[in-house]
Write a structure and sequence with these properties.
Radius of gyration: 19 Å
Strand content: 5-15%
Helix content: 55-70%
Order of helices and strands: EHHEHEHEHHHH
Largest sheet: 4 strands, parallel
Shape: globular
Oligomer: single chain
Structural class: alpha/beta
């Protein structure tokens, strides 16, 4: 008999909500996870709201509704999200959610990620966000000191933040998936195709919420090697 699961999807802007972009990818990731782990999605809640701030739950009635509905299905019914940042990158917010005694599952982390791991990844994401902001401000200040024309400062800052955020998200996803790849290799997966099949079987989604292919596994391995090289330099 399948276990109940309440799905929660969130996008930050009304444009994303109207287009469905982002929500569809999250729904696909959670659905694949549920099928792989024998869960039945008993309800879905879609939120259009920013994830910033440790008090974000006050501005997210759909998340509150998801928590309440999970409780109605019993203490073992989790709330599932595609990626941790759909809950929040704020570690205090994630910690606050744990007080509701409702288990959370992050599809891209797999079913075995316990609350401690969720706290850890949230803390890393929060720290990375702060570092991105610091690096962006430092780069803009250095460019201004050199007399470089910055054009529209808000536009330049937005581009810098977007580029840094994309890189940070890719690096964070690599750090999360790399251990699963090593586990697959230790279990006998030798080729890129075999590793991809192992990740798909575990319900772990790619960064874009899709299925793993040999090429996406190769990209993760290359980025992981680059991260190890940077850390050791």
């Amino acid at each position: 008999m399948s276990k109940p699961l309440v799905a929660y999807y969130r996008v930050s802007t009304r444009e994303q909500g109207r287009s469905g972009l982002g929500i569809d990818a999250q729904r696909a990731a959670v659905t694949r996870f549920a099928e792989a782990e024998d869960f039945e999605i008993v309800a879905e809640h879609v939120e259009i709201e920013t994830g910033k701030g440790s008090d974000a739950l006050d501005r997210r009635p759909k998340l509150a509704a998801a928590l309440a509905e999970a409780c109605q299905h019993g203490k073992l019914c989790p709330v599932a999200v595609a990626k941790l940042d759909r809950l929040s990158r704020d570690v205090h917010f994630v910690s606050g959610l744990m007080t509701h005694r409702v288990p959370f599952i992050v599809a891209e982390l797999g079913a075995d990620a316990d609350p401690f791991m969720l706290h850890l990844f949230a803390a890393l994401a929060q720290k990375e966000r702060a570092l991105i902001s610091q690096r962006t401000k430092a780069a803009l200040a250095a460019a201004k000191a050199r007399g470089q024309a910055l054009g529209n400062p808000r536009l330049s800052e937005a581009r810098a933040i977007a580029n840094a955020a994309n890189k940070a998200e890719a690096d964070a996803h690599t750090a999360i998936v790399a251990p699963a790849i090593r586990e697959a290799q230790a279990a006998g997966a030798k080729s890129l195709r075999q590793i991809a099949a192992a990740l798909n079987a575990r319900g772990i989604a790619t960064a874009r919420g899709g299925k793993w292919e040999a090429a996406t596994v190769r990209n993760i391995l290359r980025r992981s090697v680059a991260q190890d090289h940077t850390a050791g330099s």
